[in-house]
Structures are given as C-alpha cells and as structure tokens.
Please model this.
Amino acid sequence: MKLPLKNKTAVVCGASLGIGKETAREMARLGANLCIIARNPETLDAAALDIRKIMSGSDRFVDAIACDASDYEKLKPELSAFIERRGTPDFLVNNVGYAHPQYAHKLTFEDFKNSMEINYLGQLAPTLILLPFYMAQKQGHIAFVSSMMGYFGMMGYAAYAPTKFALAGLAEALRHELKPYNIRFSVVYPPDADTPGYQIENQTKPAECRMLSKNVKIMSAERVAKIFVAGILKNKFTILPGGAGFVWRMYRHFPRLFRLILDSGLQQSLKKLKLGEPRKR
Model:
C-alpha cells in the first residue's frame, strides 16, 4: 500500500466525531502522524485509540489535545508545546463546526453568536496559531471545512450559512496574501453527511427544510473524508464531494435559475405541509 503521508504530521481539529474523525483516520491510513483536538476528553480518547489501531505495528504517533478549538488563549500553549515536542506539522485540518437549524424568528442573538464562535472562530484560532510557523518555514497546508451552505443559503440556516460563507472568504483572502510564503489552502464544501451532528441537527430542522434536504443525497462521513484528503494531497483549493459539485456549478453559472428552483421547492413544501402561503413582509 502506498503511503503518501509517510513521515508527515497533521493537526486535525474537531477530530473526535463525524467528518473530523474520519479525516484523521484517513490521514493515518495514508501514513501520517497525528495530533487530534476536540473538546470532549472521552470521545477524543476513544478516537485516539481507534486511530492507533490503524497505526498498529508502526512507530508513528497520535497525540491528543482536549481543548475548545475556538479558545485561542488555551489552545495556543497546547499547540506550541506540541510543536516544540514534535516539530511544525505539515497540515492543519480544521473540522470544527455544528449546525442549529431553526426558523429565523425563533433564533436568538446568542444562537447567531454561538454559531460564529464555534464554526468560524473554531477554525480561525488554530489557523492563527500555526500561521507564524508556516510563514517562517515557507511551507504548510491549511484546510477548512465549509459546507454547501458556504456558497448559497436556504431557509432554516440563517445562523449557520453566514459562518460557512465566512470560512470561504477567509480561505480566499489567506490564499492570496500568503502565496509568496508557499502556504497552500483547501476548502471542502460537503453536502449533508451521516454524522452524529447531523442527527442532532435534524431535531430542530424546520419541516420545510427537511423536505428540501431530501433532494440532496446524504454521504457517509468516511466518503467525504476520503474525497477531502485526496483533494488536499492534490493541492486542490476547492473540494466538492458528491452532489456539491453540481450544485456549486448551478449556483455559480445560473444563480437566478437556482434561486427560482429553490423558491419553488419551498412553495411546494409549504403546500404539502398545508401551511399555506408564506406571509408577505
């Protein structure tokens, strides 16, 4: 088996569950050493144990840091200590995020604030911590997890979509500014994936939103991770798993038509749910 990540090290944030965990597993399978980061010590330790099984019989390492990735002040000394011990990692993979879909009028200011702190700052903080190291050595690869909601918005995701747009904007700006430093960037835009977070998400998802989501095929977290890591290895900036590619092209080239289709889908959902016409504002 080829090991394209042999002798490479990756820091994977949000690595205890879902796409983050599967991304760490895939990178381990391809030969990488790992530092995995997550808030929950129990799920983090379980993920580390699982990944070590993949590395069985090798002298590679999996270090685990139990920390909120959005807490810059707490995370910085932890990552600095890791770098002092293991060296600057070749990859930083930011998988931190969650969704709390709900009708906009039922969302509070705190809901919007929490979404931005976790989804955006949770990927920004590790990036800012590692950036000086990458700039000093003039190499490194930083990857972000956005979403299909990172290039278009739909009802139910008023708190979520802006955070994913923000990550796309951050990656675009950093890619341009840090080109002279040979630092590479990738952004993955996954569709709905079968993860523990997705199950929680469905608990608050508006009924119309659930009906609209049925038009998108759910991918396994493992499949998303494989496409994500393969894209990173090819130095792709934009990574579009599954149906995300078709939706991205539709929205990019035919935005008006795309919105008409999306609006028509909402109207049909309302009729099926016997909710009548939406109120005029």
